[in-house]
Design a protein that fits this description.
The chain contains 13 helices and nine strands. The model has no long low-confidence stretch (mean pLDDT about 95). A seven-stranded mixed sheet has the order 5-4-3-6-7-9-8, with helices on both faces. Strands 1-2 form a two-stranded antiparallel ribbon. It is α/β, with parallel strands linked by helices. Bound molecules: glutamine (GLN).
Length: about 300
């Protein structure tokens, strides 16, 4: 018997619910919409329509992957970050709500500021932070940096997807080394580096450790192997009084605050995620005058 999209949605939702998927309704909508090549809004509109023969097989293939533990974002190949639609692949981290704390702080930093701030997003991954900032700040010029070619190719796709080509550039560089010449100076540097201490990776959720890229998580023995050179080497491309915003892991706030203070940053603050954990550290590079008075 022919089935409507609604029939298939209801069945999918039931499967996911019985399998213990927490957000089963949302995920069922995302999977069915993706299989149908529709947006969720289009799916909701088309729910009473009959789906083509064989369509349910396509959905079940996706449901099987989900029940195997694969995150829904990798199955659908897309995810939303701070209201911005993005493509995602297994080569990059799935953008997280925790990282929206950083995006929000960056947008607030420039609220009411006219002009064209220059923003540098390091360890860009999918390009989520940089693209979101460019979308929310139509005056901003953004440079995305990653050391991984596949991630950069995805960044370029996301830049195009959000029609940001004239304001966002993607550059290949290793953030543990000095910045390339001719980057110019920036008003803000954002960075969600890999920061999980190597020994803790094993303890992460299976959906993270089995599916997300190791190199996007592994921050070395104390988790700060990438954050340290970012602070020490990349402050050279910050303008006088420019800001740095770093996502960090649990328990890293004090160590990162100290690194920033030692590197000449002032107004160093920690921002919490929705779970109450210090998740972002922000600081402003003290201007030469401030530096001399402080010293
Ligand atoms: N917050 C991520 C996690 O789920 C880690 C992200 C990162 O290392 N940048 O563990």
């Amino acid at each position: 018997m022919a089935k409507t999209y609604n029939d298939i949605y209801i069945e999918t939702r039931r499967f996911l619910k019985e399998a213990g998927v927490e957000d089963y309704s949302t995920e069922a909508r995302l999977l069915v919409a993706q299989a149908a090549g529709k947006t969720v809004a289009e799916l909701l509109r088309d729910m009473p329509l009959y789906a083509a023969a064989g369509f349910d097989r396509k959905v079940w293939d996706m449901v099987e992957r989900r029940l195997d533990g694969e995150p829904v974002a990798y199955i659908t190949g897309s995810w939303e970050f701070y209201g911005v639609p993005l493509d995602v692949t297994r080569g990059v981290l799935i953008p997280r709500p925790d990282t929206e704390v950083l995006a929000e702080a960056a947008v607030k930093l420039f609220a009411g500021v006219t002009g064209t701030p220059r923003i540098l997003d390091l360890c860009a991954g999918s390009g989520c932070i940089g693209c979101a900032l460019a979308v929310h700040m139509p005056g901003a010029r953004v440079v995305l940096v990653d050391n991984d070619r596949k991630a950069l190719a995805l960044c370029r796709k996301n830049v195009q997807k959000n029609r940001l080509d004239t304001r966002v550039m993607c550059i290949e560089a290793d953030v543990t080394k000095k910045p390339p010449m001719l980057l110019g100076k920036f008003d803000l540097i954002t960075c969600n580096a890999p920061y999980v201490p190597t020994a803790e990776i094993e303890t992460l959720d299976a959906s993270v450790k089995d599916y997300e890229p190791y190199q996007a998580l592994d921050g070395g023995a104390d988790g700060l192997d990438v954050i340290r050179p970012v602070i020490a080497l990349w402050k050279s491309v910050l303008k006088d009084s420019g800001s740095l915003m770093l996502e960090i892991g649990e328990g890293q706030a004090e160590a990162v605050r100290a690194l920033l203070a030692d590197a000449g940053f002032t107004d160093v603050r920690a921002l919490r995620d929705t779970g109450g954990t210090d998740r972002v550290i922000t600081g402003r590079l003290a201007s030469l005058e401030e530096y001399n008075t402080d010293a």
